[in-house]
């Protein structure tokens, strides 16, 4: 149930190696190979690669009947220039592990080391190193992969480190823990004209200026209510960066966010109706597409009970404070196939925030996270 000091030294060094060589979503080929190589000597009974892109599944099988328990981490980094100043800073310009996925991966590798020495007494453990969490493509791709049936879990568990929470404490609750969200890209098309004769064209200028505040007003409801909705305009462009042309094309990007998936459908419909109305009034055509689609992450009560028991047994303080969160997480996709739950592991109240350029994963979370996962697995599988 425990890691040796040498394990922790080697896992920490490996985590920092991953940190120095980040790969963003859907580009994690080298990171996936690194995972396979690092855990090769643990003798997994099955290794699946290329799942949903660059995903890797390592299976430790007891050879006896029992449930399949999946633990997930993420492989991808972010397109952010690192400014942490740590010795193991990213060596890749403009890319870095500013969300701690390198640390989550090290936690799963810690499980691999332990199960390599002592298989579960029944059933099997699946360590799922998932690609492309940041874009919402990863979990969907993994679950849609035909080979996912070979490792279909009876329970799925995950964790995420969380700055702002006391170090080593956990936040966990049943029900919704992360919001559904999706990126909405709106393209408005009119007619380009010479800037000296704008009346001969059809400009999207007024439509854009009207659309942006109107989109933001579509949200509503307190965050504590299931009817909560939020629209955040994140980007807008119009025409070319020149003075001689009156623009005929514009784009507006917005992120739609809700607590529940059902509410998302209504928010999308309202946003699409608004775009249609505004474009029509300005004699513009329009097109809408969606990107980075995340379903709501819902913690199943039975899975939460297993994690809660493990936390109590390991003496880890936990509460429901700070949950749910507005941020999205694609782990919710796993919950559509089996009871699942994610917990949030405190990185420290003053630790730099996720996605900030000065963030770095606290290595001392590796033994805490792996202890909780290991206790959960042993309770279910022996």
UniProtKB/TrEMBL annotation:
Top-rank taxon:
Bacteria
Gene3D superfamilies, A to Z: 3.30.70.360, Zn peptidases
Q: What is this protein called?
A: Amidohydrolase
Keywords assigned = Hydrolase
Domain called Peptidase M20 dimerisation: residue spans = 182-280
Please verify whether the record's keywords include Transferase. no
Q: Supply the source organism for this entry.
A: Mesorhizobium retamae
Record flagged with keyword Hydrolase: yes
């Amino acid at each position: 149930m425990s890691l040796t000091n040498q394990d922790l030294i080697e896992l920490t060094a490996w985590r920092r190696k991953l940190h120095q060589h980040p790969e963003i979503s859907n580009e994690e080929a080298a990171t996936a190979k690194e995972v396979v190589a690092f855990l090769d000597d643990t003798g997994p009974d099955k290794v699946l690669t290329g799942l949903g892109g660059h995903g890797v599944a390592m299976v430790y099988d007891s050879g006896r009947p029992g449930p399949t328990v999946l633990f997930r981490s993420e492989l991808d980094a972010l397109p952010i220039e690192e400014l942490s100043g740590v010795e193991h800073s990213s060596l890749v310009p403009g890319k870095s592990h500013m969300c701690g996925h390198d640390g989550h991966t090290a936690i799963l590798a810690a499980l691999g080391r332990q199960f390599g020495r002592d298989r579960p007494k029944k059933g099997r453990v699946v360590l799922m190193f998932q690609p492309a969490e940041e874009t919402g493509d990863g979990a969907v791709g993994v679950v849609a992969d035909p080979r996912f049936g070979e490792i279909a879990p009876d329970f799925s568990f995950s964790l995420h480190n969380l700055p702002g929470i006391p170090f080593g404490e956990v936040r966990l609750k049943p029900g919704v823990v992360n919001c559904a969200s999706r990126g909405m890209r709106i393209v408005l098309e009119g007619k380009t004209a010479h800037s000296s004769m704008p009346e001969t064209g059809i400009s999207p200028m007024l439509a854009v200026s009207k659309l942006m505040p109107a989109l933001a007003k579509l949200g509503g409801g307190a965050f504590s209510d299931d009817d909560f909705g939020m629209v955040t305009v994140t980007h807008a462009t119009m025409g070319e960066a020149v003075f001689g042309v009156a623009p005929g094309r514009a784009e507006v990007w917005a992120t739609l966010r809700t607590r529940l998936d059902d509410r998302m459908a209504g928010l999308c419909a309202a946003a699409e109706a608004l775009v249609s109305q505004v474009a029509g009034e300005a004699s513009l055509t329009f097109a809408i597409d969606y990107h980075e689609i995340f379903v709501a992450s819902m913690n199943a009560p039975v899975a939460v009970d297993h994690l809660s028991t493990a936390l109590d047994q390991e003496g880890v303080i936990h509460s429901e404070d700070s949950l749910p969160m507005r941020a999205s997480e694609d782990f919710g996709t796993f919950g559509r196939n089996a009871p699942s739950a994610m917990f949030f592991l405190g990185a420290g109240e003053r630790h730099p925030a996720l996605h900030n350029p000065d963030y770095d994963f606290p290595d001392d979370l590796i033994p805490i996270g792996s202890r909780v996962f290991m206790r959960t697995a042993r309770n279910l599988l022996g």
